[in-house]
Amino acid sequence: MPKIKNLSNACKVCFSPNGPISEEALERVRALLDEIRPLDVGLDNEAQIARNWNSSTRQSNGRRGRNGANQFAPPIKYLHIHECESFSMGIFCMPPSSVIPLHNHPGMTVLSKLLYGRLHAESYDWIDIAEPVDQLQAKPAKLVRNCEMSAPETTILYPNRGGNIHTFRAITPCALFDVLTPPYSAEDGRHCSYFRKSPVKEIPVALPDEVDSSEVVWLEELEDHQPPEGFVVARVTFCDHSNSPTKDLTHLGSCCSLGEIHDLDGLQGINTIKDIGLEGRHHISESSKVGLSTT
């Protein structure tokens, strides 16, 4: 998978533990990420399914109840490619109607590319006001994006602009390739925090004159950097076996609740799955390695 290797090598040169070394370096990585297609990461079959998807398409994943209906939705899968002190790379494979809840990327630059499918994106940036004494107190944020996206060019969000706080809801099966620099690190103060919209519609605080109040929402941080209940991601690390056929890596299995796994679909290399935290980002179920590694 030479395109992934080229992308990883460029990231190693262009990124540091403090983020991109320059705007030109960031654009170099963006150009390489623009070139990545589903075939380059072994997801061409999944991309074809997404192209043919409609709301009546019958899902093959998920544990079925006695009436034959899907009792539990399949989880989001995270295909882990690389992580070091300067950057991380991975792909979120999202089944229809799955949601990555509202979360942030503190002090980080994020490049995202939708490889296939359609999703709804909603993103915000903080409005610069005096910091509340209580970090869990609602704070105002300005709407940046609230729209449907389908396999666009690579987008970039910055530490303080571009929609650093965002949420995604899959409309069809879709895959989102993320490059984060620097990566999440609890030790360095880059926790992933989750947020909810405050029921309070107006809080007595002065907003900048240039801010349209109709685009302002009040966001509350969830306690202890914990994701909303029921948010589960199945994590797979994969290695490049250049002499073997490309594996379909997304049929990992399905979760009915936190930590409970059902029907692993016979994917070779998958062992028992346990709940772990990944750098404070998401509640992730981790499996054994099956695929591509750039290290």
TrEMBL record:
GO biological process, one term: detection of hypoxia
Keywords assigned: Iron, Metal-binding, Oxidoreductase
Cofactors, names only: Fe(2+)
Entry EC no(s): 1.13.11.20
InterPro entries in UniProt: PCO/ADO, RmlC-like_jellyroll, RmlC_Cupin_sf
Catalysis: reaction(s): L-cysteine + O2 = 3-sulfino-L-alanine + H(+)
Pfam families: PCO_ADO
Entry annotated with the keyword Transferase: no
Alphabetized GO MF terms: cysteine dioxygenase activity; metal ion binding
UniProt keyword Translocase present: no
Top EC group: oxidoreductase
Family: Belongs to the cysteine dioxygenase family.
PANTHER family: 2-AMINOETHANETHIOL DIOXYGENASE, CYSTEINE DIOXYGENASE
Protein name per its UniProtKB record: cysteine dioxygenase
Organismal lineage: Eukaryota, Viridiplantae, Streptophyta, Embryophyta, Tracheophyta
